[in-house]
Amino acid sequence: MGSERFADLGVHHDRLQRAQEEMAREGVDVLVVGPSPDLRYLIGYAGHVSERMNLLVLPRTGDPAYVVPVLEAPRLAGLRELLGVHPWEETQTPAEVVAGVVGDVAGKTVAVGDQLWSVFLLALQEAMPDARWVSATPTLRPLRMVKDGREIELMREGARRTDDAWEEFIAAPLAGQTENEALDRLLALTHGRGLGPGFGSCGSGPNSASPHHETSDRVIQPGDAVVFDWGGTLEGYFSDVTRTIHVGEPSEEFRRVYDVVLRANQAALDAVAPGVPCEAIDEAARALIGEEGYGAAFIHRVGHGLGLDVHEEPYLVSGNATPLLAGMVFSDEPGIYLQGRFGVRVEDAVLCTDTGGERLNEATRELSIVG
Ligand code: ZN
Ligand code: ZN
Ligand code: ZN
Known about the structure:
Elements: H1 9-26, E1 30-33, H2 37-43, E2 55-59, E3 65-69, E4 84-88, H3 94-102, E5 109-112, H4 118-127, E6 132-135, H5 137-145, H6 149-169, H7 179-191, E7 196-204, E8 225-234, E9 237-238, E10 241-247, H8 252-271, H9 278-291, E11 303-305, E12 312-316, E13 329-332, E14 335-338, E15 342-345, E16 348-353, E17 356-359, E18 368-370
Parallel strand pairs: 1-5, 3-4, 5-6, 10-18
Antiparallel strand pairs: 1-2, 2-3, 7-8, 8-9, 8-10, 11-12, 13-16, 14-15, 16-17
Helix pairs in contact: 1-5, 3-4, 6-7, 8-9
Bound molecules: zinc ion (3 copies).
């Protein structure tokens, strides 16, 4: 990431304060967050992932602190107005430095970010044996789930560029390329629009029936359905889109399945409104697919929250009664997978607004037939 820019200290000051309010609600005395999207969300710095412990220590009241190897302390120069910096020397034990910053923990509850390496957690637990250790997820979930205006603008723009890459991508033929070659071209078009590294997969022919297929050197042929699921990042925020296209004239059954998936995608979108439980969005798509006789072929939840992580809360899955709130962004991605034959998935990112769901992705959803 090179030299750090910290333009929005005010935003991060507010987020840290809101995290402290959630800590009070959850009965958490100290929050510990290592390099992760949670860290980036809170302080605008994602941390440096390595064997050298570096992490944020946020007490329920008072000032945040960052414990960092002395050689990485210069990266935090721009953050000194936001938090205290506590460098540790190569010969020190960083967990002891953290314990010193935290102070007396007897009878206190320490919440730990869910992406902190276990090697660090084990060292912290040894240095602070009297603390009670819990997950930070309940504390940070309410903050991360609801996007503010700036986050929504970034995600809208990321989605727009990802869609734009798709429109250029499908203007060229696919037959004769391997899945890897086709995916490389799509990702190059995506990155060419200024998006950072994200993820991607391409499944062709029978491989399209495997939702998390590992992109291979299979050569794409006439008669194939091809599923592309990919995204890039804009200032850390992911786009996440899936489109299914067909090489050459599709069968009647493919057309029918495609139409069912498209209508399920729309049914899920139509169900979105503040106050609606997450599981009701899944059910809207599932009921439609079930009525069309493909219920057993829709083998995953309809969607997941999207933001600084590509999969984050809220999860749109049966059993999750969490009510939707305006500002949540999540995927709407029903699919039908006919093993050994073909699969179809259509995925958009959706924003929950005060009045209902709004698609962030507008890449062509009509069935595209390519050469
Ligand atoms: Zn997935
Ligand atoms: Zn996806
Ligand atoms: Zn997704």
